[in-house]
Amino acid sequence: MRSVEAIVPLKLTLFGEHAVVYGYPAIAMAISETMKVRVEKSDKTIVSSNTLTIGNIKVDLDEMRAESSQLNRVLSYVIAALNYFQDRRPVHVSVESTVEPSVGLGTSAAVIVGVVASYSRYIGLNYSPEEIAKISREIERSVQGLGSRMDTYTTSLGGLLYFPRNSDDVMRINGNLQIAAGYIRRATSTAEILRRVKRLRDRGHIVDKIMDVIGEVTELARKALESGDDSLLGELMYVNHGLLSSLGVSHPTIDELVSTARSLGMKGCKMSGGGGGGSVICVREPKSEILLESKGLKIVNSEINSTGVTTKEIN
Amino acid sequence: MRSVEAIVPLKLTLFGEHAVVYGYPAIAMAISETMKVRVEKSDKTIVSSNTLTIGNIKVDLDEMRAESSQLNRVLSYVIAALNYFQDRRPVHVSVESTVEPSVGLGTSAAVIVGVVASYSRYIGLNYSPEEIAKISREIERSVQGLGSRMDTYTTSLGGLLYFPRNSDDVMRINGNLQIAAGYIRRATSTAEILRRVKRLRDRGHIVDKIMDVIGEVTELARKALESGDDSLLGELMYVNHGLLSSLGVSHPTIDELVSTARSLGMKGCKMSGGGGGGSVICVREPKSEILLESKGLKIVNSEINSTGVTTKEIN
């Protein structure tokens, strides 16, 4: 074959971000906003992207090594993913995304998952979604160090997923949720946000207590999802948001948005993902997208994706 | 004597609002923004106020009974306070305040404390500040039902006060804190805010857990006050604010203000009092009042008052 294209759903964290890093449970959902990663026969290894932060740069990667300071994160993920495979063939990897990177939608994980899914099929391997998830997580960890398995698993497997406490399990939640979602640019890097939480944590045991409560909110949310109780679920979103905000990981515009939604009597909203800007989710109702747009957020297609990553051969 | 004037300091809650209603500890501070309550010899009992919500209304109260639906809260507090005394003499009670009522500054309590202090002296009783506090609290409870002893005690006694968990004790905190404070009108009534917390509480044990954390934040804040650690104290303000916000008792403008302060690297800010608008406090630094004013808050004189209520005879 000449090329393989992977369609990777992006994801939204519904509950438990940050706490999940410390072993607490989390809930994430794959969405219909997708990223395309195409692997194509080529004389040399080339990475290109007409979106994301690397713009239209084309990088010759015959050596499969790169000076990381000169390269951005997307590129380093592609290289790390390609380097995972023993069977190295020169390919043109192109990444196409309609959303900005680093806004809490799992684009970093999606790049890795997309390369693993498309390149593996290109070289004749037949990985299951679970294998793609596992391999992608390994690669992500080797590049990032910290973080959770949530993004790689959710973008690989699709659906509504529950990540239990202190475990490597992933469980499907038998439920449904209509959400509205949007994002703004992040004002603070993940590294700085993680530093803030750590600094606060070093000063006492308050952070652990707050993480405990976030863990309980996540468990209650799981039950609310299973029983279809949108009203409780929404209230838990507000609670989870306030707890994240108390940790200093939110953003003025988003705090005001969520607080406005609550004062307008909307069912529920919260920040989603690492914070410092980034994504916001709300229980979907007529007012929710209007509110998100009115505060300058870019709307994303937040219908649930239940397939996970898919690939097709293009001849 | 012809008349007695009481000068009553207003107050700011530093930590533990809402949680104090459920038996958790709290910290409050009397401030230099004051209310004047004057009791003057008169043929009939008259209540007047050129500030507060009753405006310039003068009400003849020969009967010392009032149709409460026609009267506002300030008036009902004055009447309840006068009715406390066996020795009833016709007086003209005038209340003068420079701040709006119901913004978390303890104006309701200050009215009661002011009447108790000035009227008792007018009829020849010599109450200690502790007696004034105790009597005022009794009167407040008879009118309000709910609430905490914090406001009546702080406006009576002055200073920086710690209200321990599940106790009627009040302890002075040996520390100092320079704060900036301002307020906006409240968008939500205390009754509605208390209903919100109760509704959330009825749905699970999450609210109790959050109250627990607020209690611990308050204990840490007490130590930080005693050791003069403004930086920790400020961080605890942010944490306390987020926890209050998770309970749905905050306000969009105030959430944005506090979040902006945090993102600007300011030491600490939080809502203060019942919420739904009302007061905000920040660790005082050059930027803090400018930020408060820029968000439309009216600045109050938040220097500490250490005398509590004082009275003087005017002949």
TrEMBL record, chains A, B:
EC number: 2.7.1.36
SUPFAM superfamilies found in the cross-reference section: GHMP Kinase, C-terminal domain (SSF55060), Ribosomal protein S5 domain 2-like (SSF54211)
Predominant location: cytoplasm
Keywords noted in UniProt: ATP-binding, Cytoplasm, Isoprene biosynthesis, Kinase, Lipid biosynthesis, Lipid metabolism, Magnesium, Nucleotide-binding, Transferase
Domain of life: Archaea
GO biological process: isopentenyl diphosphate biosynthetic process, mevalonate pathway
InterPro entries reported in the protein's UniProt record: GHMP_kinase_C_dom (IPR013750), GHMP_kinase_C_sf (IPR036554), GHMP_kinase_N_dom (IPR006204), Mev_gal_kin (IPR006205), Mevalonate_kinase_arc (IPR022937), Ribosomal_Su5_D2-typ_SF (IPR020568), Ribsml_uS5_D2-typ_fold_subgr (IPR014721)
UniProt keyword annotation of Kinase present: yes
Pathway(s) this gene product operates in, as recorded in its UniProt entry: Isoprenoid biosynthesis; isopentenyl diphosphate biosynthesis via mevalonate pathway; isopentenyl diphosphate from (R)-mevalonate: step 1/3
Pfam families, sorted: GHMP_kinases_C, GHMP_kinases_N
GO cellular component: cytosol
The GHMP kinase N-terminal domain, residue ranges: 77-159
Cofactor: Mg(2+)
Active site residues of this protein: 151
GO terms for MF: ATP binding; magnesium ion binding; mevalonate kinase activity
Domain GHMP kinase C-terminal: 221-284
Subcellular location, record wording: Cytoplasm
Catalytic reaction list: (R)-mevalonate + ATP = (R)-5-phosphomevalonate + ADP + H(+)
The protein's assembly and partners: Homodimer.
Family matches, as PANTHER family: MEVALONATE KINASE
Function: Catalyzes the phosphorylation of (R)-mevalonate (MVA) to (R)-mevalonate 5-phosphate (MVAP). Functions in the mevalonate (MVA) pathway leading to isopentenyl diphosphate (IPP), a key precursor for the biosynthesis of isoprenoid compounds such as archaeal membrane lipids.
Family the entry assigns: Belongs to the GHMP kinase family. Mevalonate kinase subfamily.
This protein's name: Mevalonate kinase
Source lineage: Archaea, Thermoproteota, Thermoprotei, Sulfolobales, Sulfolobaceae
Name of the gene this protein is made from: mvk
